[in-house]
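Translate sequence into structure tokens.
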Amino acid sequence: MRKVIYAINITLDGCCDHTKMVPDEEMFESSMELLRGTDVLVYGRKTYQLMVPYWPDVAKDQSASKADRDFAQAFESANKVVFSQSLDDAEAKKGDKNARVVRTNLRDEILKLKQAPGKNIIAGGVDIPSQLIKLGLVDEFHFVVHPILAGEGRRLLEGVSLPEKLQLKLVDSKILKSGCVALRYLKQQ
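Result follows.
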């Protein structure tokens, strides 16, 4: 069965606002490693609209760094499932031919994806992954912790009440040259 992986960049104080952090080439390479084992990206509308058209545009931009273009091309080639009540397929496909909008039950759709053949599934953003964590559907967690205290912004699992404490097991860690720490956790059963 495919795994659902929650991958996100956060500050030391738990802020998930991408404008507070600046990725570097080493971070892009770390993200590329994760993307290579993935063929489906799951987002809510807000996160999807932050990613598209930005990354598809970078994929075509010859002045972008090689790391940016490589990540953008990997992002562009992955299938995307966008959970939204307001966005429709035509709007999503304007910026990304590999996107589809889903309005059905989140739990049911993710269980179908997990059981389908293919590589792993990455959930990004805050809202949809928070719901997936609450439903017990996230198998692995990848956090890149930036050496920044943002002091403001959206926080990880903000406003989410878990039915019970979720115990994680650290299985990998790496200190990046930038001072960021990449952490990989598995959900303990």
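Note: The helical segments are 25-36, 45-51, 54-60, 66-77, 89-95, 106-115, 127-134.
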